[in-house]
Amino acid sequence: MAARASCEPRLATSTSRKCMRPSKLTIEDLGPESKSIQRRKLSQNLKPLSLGLSIGGYLSPWPNYTSGQTILYNRKPCSMDKQQKNVQEQKPLGITKPRYLEKLENYLRKELLLLDLSTDSAEELRLQPYREIFEFFIEDFKTYKPLLTSIKKAYEGMLAHQREKIRSLEPLKAKLVTTNEHCSEKILAMRAEEKSEISVLKNEKINLLKLIDKKNEEKVALQTEVFKLRKNLAEEYMRYLSERDARKILLADLNELRYQREDMSLAQAPGVWGEDPVKLTLALKMARQDLTRTQMELNTMKANFGDVVPRRDFEMQEKINKDLQEQLESLQGDYEEVCKEHEILLQLHMSTLKERDQFYTELQEIHQTSTPRPDWTKCEAVVSGGQDRWLILAEGKNSDQLVDVLLEEIGEGLLREKDFFLGLGYGANVPSFLRFDGRVENKKSSKKEVLALIKDIWKERLAEERFWSFPVLQKGSFSDFFFNFLEQRFGPSEAMAWAYTIFEHVKLIQSNEIMSQFYAILIGKRSESVFIRQQETLAQLQREMMSMDHQGEGVLTMEQLSSVIKSTFPLKREERIQELMATVGWNPKSSTEDSINYHSLFTENEEGQSPHFVQKIWEQYMDEKAEYLDELKQELGLELTSAVTPTKVREALMSIDPSLDKQTLDSYLSQAFQISITELAESDQKEEKEISLETALEHLRVIDFIRTVPREQESAMKVTMGNSLTANL
Description:
two-stranded antiparallel ribbon, two-stranded antiparallel sheet, disordered C terminus, mainly alpha, 729 residues, 2% strand, single chain
């Protein structure tokens, strides 16, 4: 009892110390050293208790008091022998729990009551008293200490593993919650969309049902109308049927009356008194029946075989048709052969024309080289500006062109000496900007000044061209624009003087491309659309070159320049492209990597003369137009004095250039026959206008008359059209 009393205060003291600790602090929350110190203190506090209990008999073998008597026999569970009964009879009846077990249970109960189980780590705190009790067992039972320690470590390791696993699953739990919320939002959004779609579909369903009801009502109305029409038709049919029957009855009555009258006339005839009237009446009736039957058979035969041809005629026509079919096949074969021969002859003719032109060019060159060459250096002292200016004027020109330059210089000098021009009057042949009677002042402007004025006029005209490009607007003539420009620039009083001055300069100076074109447009020999197209082509060519120059250095290789020219002029043949490349210094032996400053290809010299590259583009344009006109003339196959109509010219143009659109074709025909497009459209309904072929070609030379499809594509299109025509035949 003394030992028991001595142990109880210690356990109470240990319990009071436990109560003084914070409830949330456990042994697991401490470090390794703190854990060992705490466990040592707990074991020291309980060591006297454990030793005292073991020494004083408190560590009783309960409930193992029968361990020495428990023997398991191999028998049925329900059987009970005498020995087992004796053991039960020998059991002591008043054995209680060991005192040490009761102390531990009380200690555990108190520790559990002191814990704060309202926190998140309640289970960890609840497990702490059990750990301490288990530590006491391990410390007291030295024999089982290794086994119990290994058991404790295994459980502690498993708990630590499960704790780490729970910690690793915490982010997944948060992610799962976030995903759940996101999915819920998506489901709500989808439900909202479905609700809107369902409402739209319901509205559409209601509209469709209304439409169906409307259609059903229309169907019922139409059925009612059809029923009424059928009823009216039946009534009309019955009425016409009754009228037909009445007509037949009436005809029968009339025939009967006629027959009776004939019988009476026969009976009264003088030569019939000897025959039996009854017999004659019967014979007449039979004859009439035979006549009626014969008439019906005749009508039936006419109805059945009225359109039938006799077999002999049918066989004859079939034989004629077969012969004609054979003739058609043979003629078609001959026609195809003739077409092939015609194509071959055309190719031979074109090659012969090329050879002729080549020989003619060589002949002209021979004529030029055979004649004595003049000493053009003598002109250096005559021309104003001296040797330097003459070299600029004579660069790249032959003797004929040099003569023109010299004449222009002489004429320009004479022009500057004039003080006045004589007005040309108000005649119909005089251009509107030159209509003046009397003397007009000579402004004595230089060539550069006139050239600058012409460029300003073209800038203003191109700006106006873009403004009047709308279909509803219509621009004025170029001559009117020219005079209006001069009035705005110099005033109404000086406009006529400047008009005469500019006109005389451009009339005299034909070596300059800009001036020569300006003069041709002023007098109506060329349309301004030709100059506008040339400027647009040069602008497009410059844009293509600038887009090809990725570095922005203003330099292109020969290969790049050739590709730009081919893309800008897809209709040019290869030899013409090589001619353009030759003007910039390229030859077949030179490398394609050689570079050139493409800005210099469009820069004018001091005299306002275009570079050779631009001049060659203009020359090729004029040559291509001439070739196109020659092809049109050959397609028509007429003399220049022969008359042509818009239909003939239209067919010829579609033959040599099948890709022409209707608007371009109508504009060509309108210019060729000097009629409006409206009159051209109405010419199909009345007599067409006829003019000579020469006049039509002259009118087409004025406008921008060019091909729209290369010759190779044209040949392919002709072959395709011929194949389709053959297939149709």
